[in-house]
What does this fold into?
Amino acid sequence: MPWALLAPSAAVAAVIAGPMVFLLGRALLDGRETLLTLSDSQTMTLLASTLVLAAVSSVGSAATGAGLAFLVERTDLPWRAAWRIVLALPLAIPPYIGAIVYLHLLSRGGVLDRLIGLALPPHGLAGSAFVIALYTYPYSFLLTSAALRRVSRSLDEVARGSGLSSGRILWTVTLPLIRPAIGAGLFFPALYALADFGTVVLLRYDTLATELYYLLTAFYRRSAAAALGTAAILLVLAFLWLEARLRGRARYHQSDASWKPPEAVRLGRYRLPALAAVAAAVVLALVLPVILLAGWAYAGAVRPSGAERLWAASASSPWKAAGESLLLGVLASTVIVGLAVPPAYLRVRSPGWPAWAIWALGQAGYALPGIVIVLGVAFLTNTVAPWLYGTLPVMIGAFMVRYISQGLRAVETGLLQIPQRLGEAARGLGERPVRAFLRVDLPLLRPSVIAGWALVFLNVLKDLPVNLLLRPAGFDTLPVRTWLSATDGIYTQAALPSLLLIACAALPLAILLRAERARGVAVA
Amino acid sequence: MRSRLHRAAAVLVLLGGILAAAFVPASAQSAALVVYSGRREPLILPVIERFRQATGIQVTVRSGGIGELANLVLEERGRPRADVLISNEVSVLEVLRREGVLQPYMGAAVRAIPREFRAHDGTWIGLSLRAHVVMANRERLAEWGLPVPGSMADLAAPPWRGRVVMPVFTNEYIVAWLSALRLARGDGWTEEFFRRLRDNRPILVAGGTQVRQAVARGEAAVGIANHYYYHLQIAEGSRNLEIVYPDQGPDGMGVLVSPSGIAIVMGAPNPAAARRFVDFLASDRRAQEFYAMANFEYPILPGVPLHPDVRPLDRVKRMAVTYQQLGELRDGTLRLIREGAFR
Amino acid sequence: MTVQTSRRPVVVLRGVVRRFDGTPAVDHLSLEVDEGEILALLGPSGSGKTTVLRLVAGFERPDAGQIWIAGRQVAGGEWIPPEARGVGMVFQDYALFPHLTVAENVAFGLHCLLQMERAPRTEEVLRLVGMEAFAARYPHELSGGQQQRVALARALAPRPFAVLLDEPFSNLDADLRGQVRQDVRAILKATRTSAIFVTHDQEEALLLGDRVAVINRGRLEQVDTPERIFHAPMTRFVAAFFGRADFLPARVSRRGLETEAGLVAQRLALQEDSGDGDVELLVRPDDVAIAPASDGQGLILDRLFVGPEIIYRVQLPSGRVVHSRQPHTATLGPGDRVAVRIAPGHPLACFRDGLAVPAEADGADAPRPLPVEGGAQTVVP
It folds into this structure.
């Protein structure tokens, strides 16, 4: 078995490690520039501001997600089944679109200002953390919901039997049990905040990613940018360590046959405030943006200005872009999740440093600003496999670097729930390892694989840098269409592709939610 | 069970087929001219379409931020993929020229372009001109009791604290402008101006689009950007805006006028087509008219009419700089920016 | 242990070693299982017995030693992966495939058969374990005992050379366990299947095994018939592992074995004058007779009422405690003084340095008489 696992895992590792080794090499080759950049007091300031953003957005995101999950899973909140779905939907909206929307709503002279004379410019730390938290909380929500659903009622009853109050039970029993989920819920927004460029640049907050971007695009100091990229990788490793600490030695709990949902907490007079909180999350993250985008799209269609007409005339059809986005999403997520299975298997069934290394590389890929990955992939492909350049496989390779971590997590979570004995039983019955895997593990793994597939699909749909810079000529996906119009401020033209993007993203999201509800698979 | 395996295999084969098909367009289109364009798509696509109709040469365009595209050209230098690079700001082309990734070309049409708007060695040519100006929100000026600024230097004065919006200092337009200031006023003056401007806490945004929106919303009283952003904002229906060509007095240094440009990439896979493309753009009057009318830019070819709302260039006092000078000063300016902890 | 031609060993282990992080879990273990034989692997938890099973199945590779299955070497030299060994495995938690029905589970290992032969074989095996009515059910719809049967059926279906059972009854309720044990033994015997099963329950091992192999810390202590394991333990460990066992120090003298509970007339193959004549004598509760006596050397500490009989804990002058079995009518109570006498109806096992000391003139391998019922005569006042 190890070879059947090691070979594809090594191939995956090579693809993911490629751009990072390239980055490291560039940083090391120009040691002076690297030292200069890393010792720069400005770099330290930016490191601090990046960490602050990561901390604030991840705490905000995880707290929001976990709180909503608790309300939906453990209380007698009305319409819980509907909230369960609706609350996950903001995952379909790219945060940079959220940033544009909130700039228009809250800025001076924005919608709110004109309506009630109130301007709350969403700039700087507060605004950036708000938008990032608003569009990453569904991770924490889905993870915590799944974890809460796995906590058995008997534990609750034992605790109650020993005379604990509901509050104490939440604190001493439930919270520790869902701690791994909360840890993962903290981890995602933190990594996202490291990598994000679009949101923070629009909301005027400087991080390592913006600095890296300016080093590249203004100074053309590619070694310095590589040095910052390396620093980002180190940060990810630190985050990984932190998350591992937070997770402790806890493992995923699988509900057994006797599992019963714990009794719902009666909200009583808090029913209305709770309902308001849940509704507020949905309105802020979903309803307002969609209304604003729809309004723009409508205005652009009904009474376009000259510039808008110009855009409308020249831009390729957003419907074609939607088709290409979906095609790309299906292809990329299928390849990526397929390839995530062997390393995930390796990590769960024979843990050791190779498996850990692949996993850590995947996490680093998620947290690296997209542009460094894209440029690294461009250089490597152009040098090593020029005939591949500008084709979909290269895009898929770059997506793999950025998003395989999501597939890995989903598959791993699923594998942890499948007893190793089943595979051994199959081999004892005369099946070779690969066929034993295909006949036993894979069918059982299906919900997790589907969940991972949907997650990668979502991210591929929303991704900007890879879509923009590595697309084959003429392959204009929805984020490209959105971005090209939005950077020019022609929001009426950005609106339709954005809405289509959200609609397309709703598709994998629906699949995700179904997979997640079918077997209680943790999604990430 | 077995049929399920077969079905999975069929799906894999299908996906493999689609993936394989993805290779085809790349090889089939290898004869097409590849254009990396940092210019806004609606401004370049119609021109390219007419080039295609005129010459029968297929063109594939990759639009994106010019900074990213320039980096891509640098990463690809070992095996160039782009034939032509179109930049919204000529200083990027100056950077690439100095990196040696641009191919000089001096065709007849190129020579017809005024000498000051093309590289002396023929590595790039200008396509259109833009003036670096100030736009003001009249209501905010009145509200905050501010005068219409007569000079860029005014904006570093205390009354403008927090009232100015401008692109980040590393924005190519700003870098070029600061280099021009160094030429016009000297390093000492520029550095001092800088420091005061920085300490005045201007609102720093990503680019001209954000500047015009911030001024139109009244977030700031004035904004520093290229002139056409004002006209684009007016075209979107803003009524409270005013455009200011600063430093126009007898002692004024004038405004910086700089071109957008086009260049052939060194080692371009289709050099012949690339040259035809440059010739076409350099001589295409309709493209020039289009830039003037749709994007309010100054045409580069003599005799092409200007948009009636735009102040004619002959009534604008311009800074006396060459783009080669700006290119040479660029590194020093960036150092200044970095040391001043500007962004 | 030599391979005799009359016996046909199906599974053979020779000097097998398996280390985990340097510490041996299985230490130079040699073992044989004959055709149609049920071997019980018995040992405390952590003794390495499950590792032995996994070595045979092929889920672990030995660090040294060889393993043969049906005359073919499968480990230590030639390596045969688990799927090619032709052994069936029944896991402690049964490891039924949750996504397959009972019939599909049983048919899982029949991939070598033609499609048309699979259904009859599945049906046949299911009938054998009495589960034919449940063929279309899914594992989670079955009780523990039923799952157990399905797991056995699945292991038996491909007609393996041997079936390996890992603590097969430990997940069953006590009242169900007895019945299932008998059923499993009957099925294995009916199909003449060789089997190794792992257990930590000595009663289960004695009841089900044709032979019992006792393992301690990865080493084989003894492998023998249940009777001999019980009555002629080769080591102090084996003796202690089966039933309630007390060890009394005894001095070997010309008259027999002198203990603080009196003389035991038994001669050992030891030289009395060898100086180090001290041995440990294994006494089980039915070897210890007690009688009320105000000047007796024993003091009753406790009486444990276990239904048909009473077990007394009796303290000897040295402070050592022995157990004595008495009928349920005994009336002695804690604090009573009693005379203690070792009164076995058979020779007692003696140990020196943890190993059995053979009795004089008695070949170690010669069969011993079966125990006499009620070996310890009781004195009831």
Notes: Residues 41-74 of chain A form the longest helix (34 residues). Chain A touches chain B through 64 residues (CB under 8 Å). The CA atoms of residues 162 and 290 of chain A lie 49 Å apart.
